[in-house]
Specification:
Distance between the termini: 118 Å
Largest sheet: 8 strands, mixed
Oligomer: single chain
Strand content: 25-35%
Helix content: 10-25%
Number of helices: 18
Length: 712
């Protein structure tokens, strides 16, 4: 067979006929593509020398188009409010606690991935703060830039798809946040070009902006393309690409709670406003489904761009296929007999908020949220078959044993070794001795009058503010300085969720138990009338009691224990009359033995949280009443106080009761829950009107039911 002739450009006409005729298989393609001669060398005649020809890259066939009628099931998995609880370990008690911990949530995640062929794993914030290990890596021995936070190290190993920021991500400042999320924050005082180890998944946040750049602090959203196993219209298995859009929102309260770090550096807008702006953009960029990560929960109050928990309103923004919630540390959906969320538009049975599948997975790794969606392709776009949606918050508690003790899933054995070195370092740190106590300091009965774990916090705060005023604020030197604090651990998480410091040596972990949060000391100037209003707000901690009822009445309301501010000094005395309506409960309020003067001014030592976001207590607690915004943490002030005084005693530091319940005889029992087997703590505190009613309240959370005799 003869070789075919190949036409060449005129610039190659001086080549010999031999050179102009080359094998098609070796040179024609090269000639056409690059207009280059095949032969080489000088002179005519001789053998043709051919350069090597690189093989053409393999051609990847275009993916087959998705057929109309194709279906895919996807499980959206949520963690939220982990609060750095990597291990099932209580650094305050130096003991394992199987009731929480990411290492157990990871077991639920692994199980879900085996159950569902298609999963998307997302985190809803409040991740990097909350344990002594978190403080150790942020404040004591800062994690190096080359190493991720222990919580992110564990999450990286599990393989998350995306996450958002909660309010507590800002507790350690923007420079630290910039480091631990890997860099990129374009705000004043921060090197955004710094690249550090962080989460191996994108972090999104739509409603916080940098004042410096005028742009979102983080990417407002991301699109994660997943290859999902699906079923074609012919019933055959196929693999299809699905673009999952993820958008994040945090609570605007960060501007108050971490004002010292954020003022003038970031701004916020409402979740609804941000969603309305960005979700159409997210859809236009090809997102097939959209998941909203809202670090907030459900609140039936009228919508405001500054509200903490706008889930009822965010769910109404068009384009959201699934809503993941947090911040409130609640469970949704709750299919028990008395669900925590009952607002209009909330359907616990269906697991929807205004028709949108929604989930909230408790806190501390005690649960995993799951939203199962059935996706259907119509030939142009994916949609959700709402008739096949299923939502649940899967608890790490699987049941109870024969003795009624809670049973939990096993920990994922791969998690603990990842952070063992840091875990042990944190334990060593919190064991550092700072003093001693001759009495057990606990909050088991703080709600009913025991000041044992509250007074020392108030003393430390008051001493600190007094010293500062005397040295730096002479205009306030004549004003009385008082202090309020609250029982931060008061049973919300169960019978073990109480401060409990044993007699003997005091260590740093004990101080962390006495003051749970990394707040800073603030001083506010208020009047006697405002003090009364403040205490009226704090008294929302109690339900209204009807003395005539013969049935049991629950004393404690849903008002959080960390908002139950109280004085613990002989100088201030008052009664709380729980038979009266909210706002009319504080009686016989006195200062130094005389009725408090409504116009007299006082300085109150408190924390940044209350001083800047306590307008629901009194209007002035929106920052206006602040006369000193300290840079020092309440916990550090407490540690310094204990170090200075060395020996802490019941007589000097734990027996001053400022308040009592107004005496009243009730026809039935007034009851409340606290830790099991703790009646002795009430006796030690001199509370003779407390008795045990039921040893186990049946909740599986290690709580007993106690009776309060209001007539004694």
């Amino acid at each position: 067979m003869k070789n075919a002739a190949v036409a060449v450009p005129s610039s190659f006409s001086n080549l010999s006929p031999l050179r102009r005729v080359a094998p098609m298989t070796t040179c024609a393609a090269v000639l056409v593509a690059v207009l280059s001669a095949c032969g080489g060398g000088s002179g005519g005649g001789g053998n043709v020398v051919l350069p090597p020809v690189s093989p053409a890259p393999p051609v990847t066939p275009a993916p087959a188009p998705v057929q109309a009628g194709t279906r895919a099931t996807v499980a959206l998995l949520e963690t939220t409010d982990l609060h750095f609880n990597v291990r099932s370990y209580d650094y305050f008690k130096l003991a394992e606690d199987k009731s929480y911990g990411y290492e157990r949530t990871a077991t639920l995640i692994n199980a879900a991935r085996k159950e569902f062929p298609n999963t998307v794993l997302l985190d809803n914030g409040d991740t990097i703060q909350g344990t002594a290990l978190a403080d150790y890596e942020a404040l004591v021995n800062r994690i190096p830039c080359t190493q991720p936070l222990s919580i992110y190290k564990a999450m990286n190993a599990t393989g998350y798809d995306a996450g958002t920021l909660g309010n507590h991500e800002f507790n350690y400042g923007l420079d630290f946040l910039n480091q631990v999320i890997g860099g990129g924050l374009d705000v004043d005082g921060v090197d955004g070009t710094k690249k550090c180890a962080g989460p191996n998944f994108p972090m999104v946040l739509a409603n916080v902006q940098s004042v410096k750049s005028g742009k979102p602090l983080l990417a407002p959203y991301t699109i994660v393309t997943k290859q999902f196993a699906a079923t074609g219209p012919d019933g055959k298995a196929v693999t299809v690409p699905v673009k999952v859009g993820v958008i994040g929102f945090t609570t605007p309260g960060i501007l108050n709670w971490d004002k010292r770090f954020l003022e003038g550096k970031v701004s916020t807008e409402g979740a609804v406003e941000s969603a309305t702006k960005y979700i159409p953009e997210l859809r236009a960029q090809g997102a097939d489904i959209v998941v909203a990560l809202q670090h907030g929960g459900l609140d039936a109050s009228p919508y405001s761009p500054t509200m903490e928990s706008p889930g009822l309103y965010l769910s109404k923004v068009p384009g959201i296929d699934a809503l993941m919630m947090g911040h409130q540390h609640g469970v949704f959906p709750d299919r028990g007999t008395n669900p925590g969320y009952k607002q209009a538009g909330v359907d616990n049975a269906a697991g929807t908020v205004n028709g949108v599948p929604a989930v909230m997975a408790s806190s501390w790794g005690k649960a995993m949220g799951l939203i199962k969606l059935e996706l259907v392709y119509d030939g142009k776009a994916w949609s959700v078959d709402k008739s096949k949606t299923f939502v649940e918050a899967r608890s790490t508690q699987t049941g109870k044993d024969d003795a009624g003790k809670a049973i939990y899933v096993d920990a994922d054995p791969t998690v603990a070794p990842l952070i063992e070195t840091q875990h042990q370092a944190a334990i060593t740190y919190v064991k550092t001795p700072i003093g001693s106590t001759d009495f057990r300091m606990n909050t088991y009965f703080a709600d009913v009058g025991d000041p044992g774990a509250i007074q020392i916090v108030n003393q430390a705060q008051a001493d600190y503010v007094k010293a500062y005023i005397q040295a730096n604020l002479p205009q306030y030197a004549s004003l009385p300085v008082l202090s309020v604090s609250a029982p931060f651990k008061s049973g919300y998480e169960g019978g073990r969720d109480y401060t409990d410091v044993a007699v003997g040596n005091l260590a740093i972990f004990n101080a962390a138990d006495l003051y749970l949060y990394p707040n800073t000391v603030y001083a506010v100037k208020v009047t006697g009338a405002e003090i009364k209003a403040w205490l009226e707000a704090a008294a929302k901690r109690f339900n209204r009691i009807d003395p005539a009822l013969t049935t049991d009445q629950q004393l404690i309301s849903t008002f959080p224990g960390y908002n139950f501010d109280m004085f613990t000094t002989p100088d201030v005395q008052y009664e709380i009359d729980v038979t009266q309506a909210v706002g009319s409960r504080i009686r016989n309020l006195s200062y130094l033995g005389a009725p408090i003067d409504p116009v007299k001014e006082f300085v109150i030592a408190t924390n940044n949280y209350r001083a800047t976001s306590g307008a629901s207590f009194i209007p002035a607690l929106d920052g206006r009443a602040t006369i000193y915004a300290s840079p020092d943490a309440n916990r550090d002030v407490l540690i310094d106080y204990i170090k200075t005084h060395k020996t802490i005693t019941r007589a000097a530091n734990g027996a001053a009761r400022s308040w009592r319940f107004t005496k009243v005889t009730t026809a039935g029992n007034v009851v409340f829950t606290s830790g099991q087997g703790q009646l002795g703590a009430a006796t030690d505190a001199g509370l003779a009107n407390i008795s045990l009613l039921t040893a186990d309240d049946g909740s599986g959370k290690g709580r007993s039911v106690y009776r309060l005799d209001l007539g004694n």
